[in-house]
Amino acid sequence: MPANSSCTEPWTTPSRPRREVLLEPMRAPQRLAPWSYAVSCEVSGPADVLASGRLVLLHDPEGQDGWDGVLRLVMYVRAELDRELATDPFLPAVGWSWLTDALEVSGASWKALGGTVTETSSARFGDISGPARTDDLELRASWTPTDAGLLPHGQAFCQVMASVVGLPPVGVTLFGQRQGS
After folding, report:
1. In what order do the strands lie in the sheet containing 71-81?
2. Buried (b) or exposed (e) across 96-129, using 16+ Cβ within 10 A?
3. Which of 56, 96, 136, 178 is least enclosed, having the fewest CB within 10 Å?
């Protein structure tokens, strides 16, 4: 699947993510379940905020403890943060709401949702090149779809990626942006 391609396999019908969201298939983990499929994602937002992530679909016909089903979706998202946002005490709750809101808005049905939101700050010293300080957010989650309609889950993942970098909802233009830019 080329970059910026439609969300297909294993999603049941094609769906085109917004142009800022670049999806590519990747090697899925082999030991977590008998069958698996994975996509990686990169997205950039206003002010060159960058995020990367992956969504993995696991299938075990026998099910596994904690899944409460035979399918499991596992999501990992990492994004750069500006210093001001990184110090916001509500950031973990907001980060988690990006996922739960996206699942609800997409119409995905799920159970057994769990995960973490982690904030990290790194300071560089000596001869290490790069910015003196970086702040990042990591969102890790997994959930069990309650039916085989996986398209809404893929759409929710794409929405989380867009939210993490600060993209406005589709059809909304930020002040200072013009159509086509």
Report:
1. 21-26, 35-44, 50-59, 71-81, 133-145, 110-123
2. bebbbebbeebebebeeeebebebeeeeeeeeee
3. 178
What size, in residues, is the chain?
Answer: 181
Q: Which amino acid is at 130?
A: G
Q: Residue 103: which of 151, 62, 135 has the closest Cα?
A: 151
- Given a contact cutoff of 8 angstroms between Cβ atoms, the answer to whether 20 and 162 are in contact is yes
Distance of alpha carbon 152 from alpha carbon 43, whole angstroms: 19
Tokens matching residue 52:
């990367």
For residue 66, how far is the Cα from the chain centroid?
21
CB-count burial class (<10 Å; 0-12, 13-18, 19+) for 62: exposed
Quote the pTM value. 0.83
- Rounded to the nearest 5 percent, the helix, strand and coil shares of the chain are 20, 35, 45
Strands 110-123 and 21-26: unpaired
